[in-house]
Amino acid sequence: MSKINENLFFSEFIGRKIMHHNGNFISTVKDIFVDFEEVYPSAIALQFVKNGQYFYTEWSQIDQINPNYIKLVKNPNLGRSRTFPVLKKPQEKTVKSILSHQFKGETIEYPPIGKVILDKQIVDTFGKKVVRVNDLSLLKRNNEITITHASIGTRSLLRRIGLLGIVNFLNNLFFPNSTRLKNDTLISWQYVHAVPDKNLNKNVKLTLTDDEIKKLHPADIADIMEELDNNARTLLFKELDHELAAETLSEINQEYKKGIIRDEKPEDIAEILEFMGPDEAVDILNDFDTERANQIIQKISDKETKEDIIELLEYEEDSAGGLMSNEVFEITPNLKKLDILKIIQNEHDEIESIYDIYIVNSEKQLIGQCPLNKLLIQKENISIGEIMEKEDIKYLTPEVHWREVAEFMSKYNLINLPIIDKSNKELLGIVSVDDVLPWLLDER
Amino acid sequence: MKDKIKRNQFITQLFLLLSIIGPGLITANIDNDAGGIATYSLAGAKTGYRLLWIILPITVALIIVQEMSARMGVVSGKGLADLIREKFGAKTTFYTIVFLLIADLGNTMAEFAGIASAGEIFGISKYISVPLSSVFVWLLVLKGDYKIVERVFLLGCTVYISYIVSGVIISPDWSQVSKSIFIPNISSINKSDLPIIVGLIGTSITPWMQFYIQSAIVEKDISVNNLWHTKVDVIFGCITMSLVTIFIIICCAATIHVNNGTITSAKDAAIALKPLAGDYASALFGIGLFNASIFSAALLPLATSYYVCEGMGWESGVDRTLKEAPNFFILFGILVIFSAIVILIPDIDLFNILVFSQIINGLLIPIILLFIINLCNDPDIMGEYTNGSVYNFFCYGIVAVMLTANLGLVYFYFIQ
After folding, report:
1. How many Å apart are CA B367 and CA B381, to the nearest integer?
2. B326: contact with A, CB 8 A cutoff
3. A220 has which bridge partners?
4. For helices B350-376 and B207-220, angle between their N-to-C axes, nearest 10 degrees
5. Rounded distance between C-alpha atoms, residue B165 and residue B171, angstroms
6. Is residue B175 domain-resident?
7. In which domain, by residue range, is B203 found?
8. How far is CA B55 from CA A173, A210, B68, B355, in A?
């Protein structure tokens, strides 16, 4: 075998010829039996139909899998059953409640995976409609096959219908540069709860249950949510507590943001916004009309956050003022290193970035800056005014367009960029590089 | 004391029945849409009482088919497109849906043809009535409350009672009528009857209706324990529909057929109501036709868009935005706009569109029926509520008769 790892689709695997070792044709692949207990289930047997009767052959009986045919070993064991009987192992590990009733008998009867999940709807934990599984993505490693993803998009649907070739041809002809329909939309199998039930007809569930979901990184939750339909997205979002909701919302693609919180109560939105950086909160508020945005702002209980948000709302979304966060780590020049570290320990929660410390005078004008690493290597009792850089501080004013901000930051290799009021030179906030990145990505 | 308990139980049961009744009755009434009225009128005018006996087996077939769809809805809790997709896979579903979509496009055209015909009775040009109605349909579906739409529609259906009253006033020879209804007269069928027979079947047992009733029942979330209430609902609905059908045919036979008249437009069909309404017959017919047409013009594209999206796994729902459910709205839009435009083609024969769309239905229904029968026999889906063998015998019998009628039609009209 030249290739070790190969991705293939379930629909391509089905219908492959099965042959005896001597090359005699037996039948074609009807379906695959897998071990449902694994996170990424591996194939354990092939199902095929001959003379109207169902047979299976265990994976160990397969000699080689080629793109065109599957060859079995000499004198293979063939079993006759619609399902695949697996002898019950002694139960040592704890089984989740949803699995438990499956394991009461001596053997487990596994239905094949295609029958369990193909063309079924994946529903979320609330039983609401999500998406239909058009295909499965398999990983082939030598002779082993593992199920890795459920495929849900238009591309997989077209492949099933047999029109993918034509549509691809037309797509390349008329929109050669389009990225549409070039890739399958996939849901990782670890989120798919495809445990066969007595009633095969039940919908397949996503494993986004209670605690499991809360353990995921907000960016992962965001990924999952982007793949769900609107209804499911809002339902799932409602399950998150406000803090997790805020973090997830920051990670999720801009185009879904509004849809998700559109129907939430102003109080709830306000609470979620409080957990976000003011700049991100403003991004979301900008999607609402003025009246509703005002309603939400009214409900924000933390006075400081509220003022920050109102301040930021005045700037255009695509200007430096719209990008910046006004939670800046700003201190006066007389503070000692020890005091500063203490402040960092106490307030790090509320400060977006501490890599750069900004020093302001009594009029809040920016007079110097100091990177955190420079401060760390100093003596304990040195004051920041002594070590700060006073000359050549890079800054911009709030009305500058984001593209200029990006160019400016790239030119001077800045991670953070202070934004200064044009007239009174007051430090208003900072733009971090991750505030600009999404705009650049959208531009692409 | 015992009596009282019994009576209380009876009352509880009655209330339960009333709360569940609806999907069957409504579906049956949508059945009598513009295409339906046209086909029945034509049948009466052309053949008199001669084909009346066909209505009885059609009613039985309709009850059997609708009962299966309803039972599947109650037991599986899923729509028909859903089940077809899960059992037969993406490819079969896709091509079935393509054919259904073509048929439903024809049906929607028929509804708009009905609107145009009804308008013409009142002297309103179709260039005014059709565009206005399509805008109304859009608003009704996108802004209106579906439950209210359904009620207004049902209320409008009471116009059909006028056919029964008209029939009684005509007082035809009842012994001859009942003989025509109950005694099959197969030998009298000739070649020219075939389109009418296929049309009658097609307008009574339509493909999209099976999707509609199953979805409506799934929506109501009826418990399996109350399965028999649903059956009562279905039977009651079907009988109501057939009664109206029979009386439309009687009225047309007694007023138009006896005078050797023909129906070339909706105005001619209105003569059947003359015994009841006299000079107002046209108006009454116009109102009935308009009511049936406009609501079906709204419900049919809507139901079609829903089941197509259901089968293909696309997002759907009138409460979504265009961006959230693009396929759903594009489908609905195309069905309404395309149909309206076709009807607006000058000098197009509206009445022919009405009848022809029903023939397409008749050709397609056996295929859908085979799906339904197959699904209804799958223990994975139906559990203990699969069809019995006697029931299956009747089901396949119905399919066989339908196929025979279709083949006959195809043979005589397209091959010869």
Report:
1. 20
2. no
3. none
4. 60
5. 10
6. yes
7. 51-415
8. 54, 57, 20, 17
Does the beta-carbon distance from B76 to A152 stay under 8 Å? no
| pLDDT tens per residue, range B211-262 | 988 888 887 777 788 788 888 888 988 998 899 899 888 888 888 777 777 7
CB atoms within 10 A of CB B345: 8
Q: Are strands A62-65 and A53-58 parallel, antiparallel or unpaired?
A: unpaired
Answer yes or no: do A119 and B78 touch at CB < 8 A. Answer: no
Domains and CATH numbers, chain A: 7-102 (2.30.30.240), 113-206 (no CATH), 213-314 (1.25.60.10), 330-443 (3.10.580.10)
Which chain B residues are within 8 Å of A199, Cβ to Cβ?
A: 380, 383
pTM higher than 0.95: no
The answer to whether B86 contacts A162, with C-beta atoms less than 8 Å apart, is no
Q: Where is average pLDDT lowest: A164-173, A179-188, B99-108, B300-309? A: A179-188
* B166 within some domain: yes
Which of A132, A151, A160 best probes binding to B when mutated, by most B CB atoms within 10 angstroms?
Answer: A132
Which of B82, B83, B386 to probe the A interface (max A CBs under 10 A)? B82
Chain A, chain B: beta-carbon pairs less than 8 Å apart = 43
Separation of alpha carbons B308 and A30, rounded Å: 27
Residue B116 located in a structural domain: yes
What is d(CA B103, CA B339) in angstroms, rounded to the nearest whole number?
12
- Mutant choice from B80, B86, B218 vs A, greatest count of A C-beta within 10 A: B86
**What's the half-sphere exposure (Cβ side, CA atoms, 13 Å) at A260?**
28
Q: Which amino acid is at A350?
A: E
Q: State pLDDT tens for residues A54-103.
A: 888 888 888 888 888 888 888 888 888 877 776 655 444 443 433 334 44
Angle of helix B350-376 versus helix B326-344 axis, rounded to 10: 150
Chain B residues in contact with A160 (beta carbon < 8 A): 89-91
CB B324 within 8 A of CB B315: yes
Q: Distance (Å, rounded) from C-alpha B281 to C-alpha B274? A: 5
Q: For chain B, first and last CA: distance in Å?
A: 73
Question: Which of helix, strand or coil describes residue A187?
Answer: strand
The domain spanning residue B367 has which CATH number?
1.20.1740.10
- Does A131 contact B313 at a Cβ distance shorter than 8 Å? yes
Closest approach of chain B CAs to the CA of A127, in angstroms? 12
CB-side exposure of A296: number of CA atoms within 13 Å?
A: 29
Task: Choose among A119, A131, A160: nearest Cβ to B86.
Answer: A119
Q: What is the pLDDT of residues A141-200, one digit of tens each?
A: 888 888 888 888 788 888 888 888 888 888 888 887 776 777 777 777 777 765 554 444
B22 domain-assigned: no
Question: What's the domain count of chain B?
Answer: 1
Contact B315 A230 (CB under 8 A): yes
